Amino acid sequence: MFKQFLAGTAILLALSSAAVAGEQYVDETGFAISGYDAVAYFNLTQKDDGMMQPHAVPGRADITADYNGAKWAFATAENRDMFLADPAKYAPKYDGHCAYGVAKGAKVPANPNLWRIVDGELYLNITPEVAETWNSDIADYIMDANDEWSDLEPKSASNDSWMEIGDNDGTYDMTAPIK
Q1: Which of 86, 147, 148, 162 pairs as cysteine with 109 (C-beta 3.0–4.6 A)?
Q2: pLDDT tens digits, residue range 68-83?
Q3: Which domain holds residue 144?
Q4: Could you tell me if 65 and 24 are in contact, meaning their C-beta atoms sit under 8 angstroms apart?
Q5: Is residue 96 part of a domain?
Q6: Residue 67: helix, strand or coil by DSSP?
Q7: What does pTM read for this prediction?
Q8: CB 31 within 8 A of CB 73
Q9: What is the rounded distance in angstroms from the CA atom of residue 22 to the CA atom of residue 115?
Q10: How far is CA 158 from the centre of its chain?
């Protein structure tokens, strides 16, 4: 009886967590956030609005976890374990799509090096110009994105590549994850 209860509880938890997230953005790397470590963002020193943030920390292909239908890479086993303990705390908003794009009503890819943490939430953007625009009025863009998200969330994830956008040249030193 107890085993049946546990099995039923596990199924309900799986269904409820699937209901709170749409399809995760995964690019040609095959990883969420292009193989960068979601937990590591929260340990980087964030720069002031309008300034380029430090580059994201590449994850390792041999330290991974599955969440929201995607594979995530981490720089350390400790970061992976922290993520698994509370993935919603570390996963970027809008299933890893560009926050500004969502505010404008579209699921577009996001560059993992164009990030900002606001009120404990990780937001990504697609190009430096878009990040600059988003940074000019973050609070309003977040409100707009939250309003748009309920309509966008059930739609398919973007399958475009942020690395193929010329404006992103120079925004990253290497691709992730580290093999």
Answers
A1: 162
A2: 999 999 999 999 999 9
A3: 23-168
A4: no
A5: yes
A6: strand
A7: 0.87
A8: yes
A9: 20
A10: 13
